[in-house]
Design goal:
Shape: rod-shaped
Organism: Lysinimonas soli
Protein name: DUF1003 domain-containing protein
Keywords: Coiled coil, Membrane, Transmembrane, Transmembrane helix
Radius of gyration: 43 Å
Number of helices: 5
Pfam families: DUF1003
Number of domains: 1
Length: 178
């Protein structure tokens, strides 16, 4: 038994931190409750929720209207007090949970907007830097020999070499050259 525990501990320590399983429960109830409120608000905003709520209310009304009076749990004569109470309770809990979910979404949006603003600032700084570098390169290019200048110089050298014999001496002038 002790060997099995030591083997488990060793493999536990050898695994990357993200892959380790933890046995310590998380007590961040605020986040858990916030996620619950978002799930609740998301579920209440669906067609299925509205359909299910409508079916429950219709069944409730039909049963308590048509069933024998001794079987009714919310008699029609009392104006469906229990149904009214349940729907009021559902509405009183739904509103704050939906507001909590909206506040959490606003917080996420605020963080996203700040990250977008920072990214835009970095992009602007990078663009300005690159623009300055391009201007500096253009200014430096004025002092650099262009292709046309180098070609002209090479042509001039070739013409000069064409006139010189292989020994390095200038050829004698011809009689026609005068």
């Amino acid at each position: 038994m002790a060997r099995a525990n030591s083997t488990r501990r060793e493999s536990h320590l050898d695994s990357p931190k993200g892959l380790r399983t933890t046995f310590v429960p998380s007590f961040s109830s605020g986040d858990r409750f916030g996620r619950f409120s978002e799930a609740f608000a998301r579920a209440m905003g669906t067609t299925w929720f509205l359909f299910a709520l409508t079916v429950i209310v219709i069944v409730w009304l039909v049963y308590n209207s048509l069933a024998p009076e001794r079987w009714q749990f919310d008699p029609r004569g009392q104006n469906f007090t229990l149904l009214t109470l349940i729907l009021s309770l559902q509405a009183s809990y739904a509103a704050p949970l939906i507001l909590l979910a909206q506040n959490r979404q606003d917080d996420r949006d605020r963080v996203q907007i700040e990250q977008d603003r920072q990214r835009a600032e970095r992009n602007l700084a990078d663009t300005e830097y690159l623009a300055r570098e391009v201007v500096a390169l253009r200014l430096a290019m004025k002092d650099v020999a262009t292709k046309d200048f180098i070609r002209a110089e090479l042509r001039a050298l070739l013409e000069e070499f064409d006139g010189v014999p292989k020994g390095g001496e200038k050829p004698p002038k011809r009689a026609s050259e005068g």
